[in-house]
């Protein structure tokens, strides 16, 4: 029998609800795009009991947070939380982030899932930006950088997350 101290997975939907869920911005917000993907395990199977959490700057590269060195800007929370579906799908409706000082525009991502005692953390970068100017992106081996790039899709972007195995998404120690 699993208990909360043994695994995170089965308890995510119960213990970590977020009132706005996948809506970083409300539907109908001008410029809003979906960032959607599939969370898969090491064998490529969908993870149906995962949670994908995002946090990002606004389109001007600012945070509604007192730690923003340029001063907090009110009005854009920048946070989303999407439980995965039975087929591992997740998505957040957001605005594309702006560049931060010394960093390319990106979305920070935390993943919680069965078998993980701690979250794993990655980033979503966008192919139309100069990502090589970002020291974090540039530090990733060339052959693994594609796991950090979203792909343009019909109504936004696609970003699949593979927890381990061939094509594993790059995760960062934070």
From TrEMBL:
Keywords: Dioxygenase, Oxidoreductase
Protein name listed in UniProt: Protocatechuate 3,4-dioxygenase subunit alpha
Superkingdom of the source species: Bacteria
PANTHER family the record matches: DIOXYGENASE, PUTATIVE (AFU_ORTHOLOGUE AFUA_2G02910)-RELATED (PTHR33711), PROTOCATECHUATE 3,4-DIOXYGENASE ALPHA CHAIN (PTHR33711:SF9)
Domain Intradiol ring-cleavage dioxygenases residue range list: 32-100
InterPro entries assigned to the protein according to its UniProt record, in alphabetical order: Intradiol_dOase_C, Intradiol_dOase_core, Intradiol_RC_Dioxygenase, Protocat_dOase_a
Enzyme class: oxidoreductase
High-level lineage: Bacteria, Bacillati, Actinomycetota, Actinomycetes, Pseudonocardiales
NCBIfam families membership: protocat_alph
Organism: Allokutzneria oryzae
């Amino acid at each position: 029998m699993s208990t909360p101290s043994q695994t995170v997975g089965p308890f995510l939907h119960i213990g970590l609800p977020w009132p706005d869920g996948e809506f970083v911005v409300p539907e109908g917000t001008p410029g809003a795009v979906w960032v959607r993907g599939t969370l898969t395990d090491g064998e490529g199977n969908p993870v149906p009991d995962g949670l994908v959490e995002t946090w990002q700057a606004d389109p001007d590269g600012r945070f509604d947070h007192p730690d923003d060195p340029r001063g907090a800007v009110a009005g854009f929370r920048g946070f989303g939380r999407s439980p995965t579906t039975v087929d591992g799908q997740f998505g957040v409706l957001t605005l594309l982030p702006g560049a931060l000082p010394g960093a390319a525009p990106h979305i920070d991502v935390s993943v919680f899932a069965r078998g993980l005692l701690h979250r794993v953390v990655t980033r979503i970068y966008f192919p139309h930006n100069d990502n090589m100017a970002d020291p974090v992106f540039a530090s990733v081996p060339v052959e693994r950088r594609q796991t950090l790039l979203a792909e343009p899709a019909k109504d936004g972007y696609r970003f699949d997350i593979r927890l381990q195995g061939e094509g594993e998404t790059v995760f960062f120690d934070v």
